Amino acid sequence: MLHLDLIQMASIGGKVEVANDDRLGCADRHAWVIDGATDLGEPGLLGARGGAAWLAAAADRAFAQAAGPLEAICDSVFERVEAAYLREKQRDPLALWEIPSAAFAAVALEGDRLRCAYASDCPVLHRRGAEVSFVTPEPDRRREQAAAQALGAGATAGGVRSPEVLADRRAARNRPKRRVLGVDAQDSREAASFREMPVQKGDELLLMSDGFSALFDAYGLYDPASLFEALPLRGLHALIEELRAIERDDAQSHLFPRFKPSDDASAIWIRVG
Questions:
Q1: How far apart are the C-alpha atoms of 242 and 14, rounded to whole Å?
Q2: How far apart are CA 230 and CA 99, in angstroms?
Q3: Residues 192-213: what's their mean pLDDT?
Q4: Residue 231 phi/psi, 5° resolution?
Q5: For residue 210, which phi and psi values (nearest 5 degrees)?
């Protein structure tokens, strides 16, 4: 029976003084990455912890405790997250923008097929020999970059706490029916998309948050194939340091428009065994 072997995983926060809102994990036959959407207000809805970190941790625990076909795993995660939110929230949210949400991607082996579930922008890459392909849709940051550029480098250099960025991001977050993992199980179920493909022993997978995928879809330092070539030579931690070096050199977001100087960057590299 096929299984998943963990090769490396790495997760480094965008700021050392702020909690990392990403989570990663790998079980015998499924793996996952969760990227909590940056909080746009002060903690309070769920106590002293920020909503993004709370949701990422709750979903991570649920994925770790689940097993079976991927749709059943996801249903279990969505139900557990909703139950935890209803149990632990301290008050009603101020607006839609305060309700915790996250991007996620998860994969599971089902016989000789790989099933993938995802919502929002956590990419998954698959490699067999020299062939590298996306399991999830190929990322496209053009709309995000245009929105950041419209605010101007002076505004976005301060991150999401600058008044202009905060107002823009709250307006974007207030849109109903966003395709994200959230605290309503039915909404999460409707937001999740599924794909599948054949796999065999020796295939490799890379699940990542968009903070890590910036290496190829925002900064152009690698393409997906050369990124896989770099993995055994550089390792995930060194690749994240390369990413951070680019961000330090462009701290004002002049070359690469973005809403914050550095994002949480996480990836998990696994092999089918």
A1: 13
A2: 38
A3: 98
A4: -55, -55
A5: -70, -20
Parent domain of 72: 4-272
Mean pLDDT (the chain) is 96
Task: Tell me the average pLDDT across 68-73.
Answer: 98
Q: DSSP class of residue 45?
A: T
Element (H, E) at 108: strand 102-110
CB 207 within 8 A of CB 103: no
CB 112 within 8 A of CB 198: yes
Q: Which residue has the tokens 């994990």?
A: 25
Could you give the number of structural domains in the chain?
Answer: 1
Q: What is the DSSP letter of 39?
A: P
Answer whether residue 152 shows pLDDT above 90. Answer: no
SS3 content of the chain, % helix, strand, coil (to 5): 40, 25, 35
pLDDT digit string, tens, across residues 241-253: 999 999 999 998 9
Q: Which of 272, 174, 237, 217 is nearest to 8 (CA)?
A: 237
CATH number at residue 80: 3.60.40.10
> What dihedral do alpha carbons 241, 246, 248, 253 form, nearest 10°?
-140
Q: What's the CA gap between 24 and 30, in Å, rounded?
A: 11
Q: How far is Cα 94 from Cα 67, in angstroms, rounded to an integer?
A: 35
Q: Are strands 204-208 and 124-128 parallel, antiparallel or unpaired?
A: antiparallel
The phi, psi pair for 2, rounded to 5°, reads -70, 150
- Alpha-carbon distance 8 to 237, whole Å? 9
Whose tokens are 């070359």? That residue is 255
The one-character DSSP state at 85 is H
Q: Which amino acid is at 239?
A: L
